[in-house]
Amino acid sequence: MNIKTYVFTCLLTAASVASWAQQPGPGGPSSGQRRGAPDLMVENFFPPELIMQNQKALNLTTEQQTAIREEIQKTMAKFTDLQWQQSAESEVLDGLLKQERVDEKLAVAQLDKLLAIESEVKRLHFGTMVRMKNILTTDQKTQLRELKKQSRPVNASRDRVPGNTDESQRPQPSEK
Q1: Domains of the chain: residue spans and CATH
Q2: Residue 35: what pLDDT?
Q3: What Å distances lie between residue 146 and 54, 105, 150, CA to CA?
Q4: 169 Ramachandran zone, left/alpha/beta (phi>0; psi -120 to 50)
Q5: Which among 47, 50, 109, 119 could disulfide-bond with 21, CB atoms 3.0 to 4.6 Å apart, if both were Cys?
Q6: Dist. CA 137–CA 133, nearest whole Å
């Protein structure tokens, strides 16, 4: 694999984990509704960036640092392979959909292949987060929960009208 592809993949994964970690947590406007997997993951897992940025404060041991680094490296290798598969299957679906008359059975079967890859990516991330959490001690998890609480109010209140929790009421950029 060439270095540009590897760096791009690393950045893409870091960005997706970072945006996932910044989603609003419990207690927001949807707290009365049944919570989905992303909410549960934000509540119960710790983004790798948060662990890496606070490794000294967390007193991570050398063994913990090595184990977490290995988990991330294994995940990246699998993720890259899945990206290649997804790209190839997307090209096939694109070709099917560009035809004048789309064969629904073939198109749906191809979509199922893409959805299976997406599901595998989600399982991969979920498994990695579980293993990383299990590497940490109880005290380290407690510290990380506090760090997440400290950073959440800043993210949750960004760009909102004071006292308004309705996402559709965010201030919109003015047109020139």
Answers
A1: 62-145 (1.20.120)
A2: 62
A3: 12, 50, 6
A4: alpha
A5: 47
A6: 8
